[in-house]
Automatic annotation (TrEMBL):
Presence of the UniProt keyword Transcription in the record: yes
UniProt-recorded name of the protein: HTH marR-type domain-containing protein
SMART domains attached to this UniProt entry: HTH_MARR
Domain HTH marR-type: 10-144
Signal peptide segment: none
Keyword annotations of the record: DNA-binding, Transcription, Transcription regulation
InterPro entries listed in its UniProt record: HTH_MarR-typ, Tscrpt_reg_MarR-type_CS, WH-like_DNA-bd_sf, WH_DNA-bd_sf
Keyword Transcription: yes
Domain of life: Bacteria
Amino acid sequence: MNHKIDHPVPPSLVAQIGALYHRLYKESDKLFREHDFPLQMDQVPVLMVLYYAGGASQKDVGTALGRDKASINRTISVLLKKDFVKVIPDAVDKRKTHVELTASGQKLAKQADAILGRFDAVLSSELTLEERKGLDKTMLKLIGLVTPC
């Protein structure tokens, strides 16, 4: 039995999910570059969290993405320099800030959402409705299992 042909990645769940993640990330990055998207792929999730949340604290963005504070701060700084976000100091606690998308950030997030939506549709078209529902259920279960309380 040739494992390299039968299993392009080790047959463990962690390895398979990791391989899928990296391939999806790489393909998404390629799609964004084809559309002359002005952000790096690792900055897009921050943009999308802010888009769907209607703004959030930097801490909440980090929690939502499972990323450290320094990483989120770097991305927010880039988005701020490119005028995609505005940072609003908390009126009560000067250490806290609220981050919101600017009009240009909203436009960019809608563009990113459309690109990701088309990619999602292509992937979903390869699955039956039953397979998609099962995948959604399984992915949410796995996310719940590895998400700290």
